[in-house]
Structure formats: C-alpha cells, structure tokens
Design goal:
The chain has helices spanning 4-12, 34-38, 42-47, 50-54, 58-74, 119-166, 170-200, 213-225, 249-266, 324-333, and strands at residues 16-21, 26-30, 78-85, 91-102, 108-117, 208-212, 233-238, 244-248, 272-280, 283-290, 338-344, 348-356. The protein is an alpha+beta fold. A five-stranded antiparallel beta sheet has the order 2-1-5-4-3, sandwiched between helices. The protein has a five-stranded mixed beta sheet with strand order 7-9-10-12-11, covered by helices on one side. The longest helix has 48 residues, at 119-166.
C-alpha cells in the first residue's frame, strides 16, 4: 500500500499517523511524532508494537480492545481518549481516531488513523467542568443558605410592621415595607436563577466521556458537607475505590447535585444523607437516601411529571418550580439510564439510579 501521503503529513505534524497491518500485526507506517507523544524510540515500537499499550492506563486498555473489536466487526471508525503513564510517572491524555481500510471485496486489511496529545486541552476542559460543578453546587448552597436568613429578616420585618401599624408610625411602616419588598425580590431572584439553570441544561447535547464516578460523587458530597450552614450527616459508601463510566459528566453531576439539594430541602437539620455507588455486572447502581419527611403516597405517582401540582415547600420554606425531579429523570434517561424510588412518609426517601457500564 502506498504510504507517501502518510509520510508527507507525518514529517511535519505533531500528530501521530499510523497504518497498522492486521495480517502481520505490525505498522506499515508510523510517523515520527510517536517518539515525542509516547516518549519512546520509534524503531523499537516498529519492532515491538506492544510497547505502545504498555504505557496505557489499565482502565483504558479494555476500552481500546473493545473499540478495536468494533472497528473490525462493524467496519466503522471509532475514537477514544486514553491516559498514558510514561517514564518518570508523567501523565498524558491522548486522543486516538482509527478507521478500517478495506479491499474492493470489503475485507478489512489495515487500520489507519491518528493520535494526538491533548493533555493541555484536557486539563482546560477539566478546569471548565470543575468550574461548572462548583458553580452549580454554589447556586444550590446559596439558595439553601440565604433562604434561612432571609426568612428571619422577613419575620422580624413583619413583626415590626405589625407593632408599628398599631402605633401609626408612618416612617417605620415605610422602612419595614421596603425590607419586605427586598426579601420578596431576593427570593424571586434565587428561584429564577436556579430554575433557568436547570431548565436550559437538558437541551444541551450529550457528551459521553470516561471518568471515575466514585471520585466525582465524593467531591460533590464534600462540597456540600463543608459548606457553612449545611449541618447534615453526609455519607458516601463505595465497594470499589474507582469505577470508570462513559457518561455525560456535566449532566451526571447535575443529577447528583439535584438529588442532594432535594434532600436538603426535605430533611431536618442534622439528618442523614447518604449515597452508595456499586457495580452489579455491567450496570452501575447508585442509591441516594435521606431520612427526611418522605413523599406522601398520594403524591408519588406524579413525582417525575413536569410542572405537576404536587410541588411542596421545603422545611425552610424553599419554594419549588415542580420540574426538578422531572429534569433529573430526563438527564438519566438520555444517558441510557433509569431512575426509580421508594419513600415512606416521615421516614425518608431513596432514589435508585442505574446506568450501563462501558462495553455493554
């Protein structure tokens, strides 16, 4: 096969171009950039292609073999982001795109493609994701923390207004009226801000990526548990230290964030909020529980209905737009998952999330 085109691109590009022969299990062509990306001698790799996989993180190797199997069986291109552990313990993120090369008879003889070092891009994307996660958590914490003090302000202002109405003190009456109006405006602003965030998010496309779900859940719960004024007993129970998934990370975090925030609304201060994460076969199972006031049986049938008439105020007077759990269900299902719950009034609620694990 003519590899002149690969040579022209390979000599000047920072990307690794390759042409892998399925008969010989050797590279017919491998561009010089592989030495820089993999930090290994190109000639050694040509002699022993297995050297490329020795640097790949164990969690990513199975995903690579699965993609390779799909390319050969379905005759379609695939792409994947992998992590490399290189000499000196340095880490790199590499994006690989691979495509089948067929004969006129439709027989796949080669796999061609490219690999690119995306470490810097990946770090930037992770920064943006972390920023988004922190932003969402902060919004929920702000809503929770501000409603309490605002309710106190409203109570005192209402008391002052009542007392001074009786004494006909017009000036103080105007002042308390201003305070009450400010309270209503602040609460409306909080509700609108949170509602807009959740209503707009589901319209964004699904961006499936590999990430460690145990790490993400722990980080999110930590952000709530250390927040000032959020005095609850948080627990995260995981049978494994690390479980790799392929989901939309931003939407997954929005799901967990919403469930935790919902528990905060309907669980008394000092109550328990727990999340368990485990693997069952090729399924990821997450159970989110609290020992709050629960959901009355007569309301349970409409829990996931958008704009239902069963929306309740939280224990601190938090209002609800009635769309929160409906959006959670949407976000779960567009990622191939399912959600259910069990609840008993005055005892608590548990939501069960199920997602397919990679390779299913």
């Amino acid at each position: 096969m003519d590899t002149d085109l690969f040579h022209l691109f390979g000599k000047s590009s920072k990307k690794v171009f390759f042409l892998f022969n399925l008969d010989t299990l050797r590279f017919d062509y491998l561009s010089e950039a592989v030495s820089k990306v993999w930090e290994a001698d190109r000639e050694l790799i040509l002699e022993t292609p297995e050297l490329l996989t020795s640097s790949i993180h164990p969690d990513d190797k199975s995903a690579i073999y699965k993609r390779l199997e799909q390319i050969i069986k379905k005759g379609e291109g695939r792409e994947l982001e992998i992590s490399l552990t290189l000499p000196g313990a340095s880490q790199k993120e590499v994006k690989v795109e691979a495509y089948p090369i067929k004969t006129e008879a439709g027989v796949i003889t080669h796999i061609a493609g490219e690999a690119e070092d995306i470490t810097k891009q990946s770090q930037y994307v992770n920064y943006l994701k972390e920023y988004t996660r922190r932003k969402d958590s902060t919004l929920e914490i702000i809503a929770h923390d501000l409603r309490g003090p605002l309710a106190i302000v409203k109570g005192i202002a209402s008391l002052l207004k009542s007392e001074y109405d009786e004494e006909k003190n017009e000036e103080l009456h105007n002042y308390t009226k201003i305070i009450l109006n400010a309270y209503d405006n602040c609460l409306e602003l909080i509700d609108n801000l949170l509602s807009d965030e959740h209503l707009k998010s589901p319209t964004i496309y699904v961006n499936m990526l590999r990430f460690d779900v145990v790490e993400k859940v722990r980080k999110l719960v930590d952000s709530f548990s250390v927040a000032k004024g959020v005095a609850y007993d948080f627990e995260v129970n995981c049978e494994e230290d690390k479980i790799m998934v392929e989901l939309d990370e931003v939407k997954f975090m929005q799901i967990i964030n919403n469930l935790v925030s919902n528990s905060l609304k309907f669980t008394k201060v000092g109550g328990n909020i727990s999340i368990s994460v485990k693997r069952e076969g090729r399924k990821l199972i997450i159970a989110h529980s609290d020992n709050g006031i629960g959901i009355p049986e007569k309301l349970q049938a409409d829990v996931f209905n958008r704009y239902n008439k069963t929306a309740r105020k939280g224990l601190q007077g938090e209002t609800s737009s009635g769309v929160g759990l409906s959006i959670v269900q949407d976000l779960v299902e567009i990622q191939g998952g399912s959600i259910s719950f069990v609840s008993k009034e005055n005892e608590g609620t548990t939501f069960f999330l199920t997602f397919p694990l990679p390779g299913e």
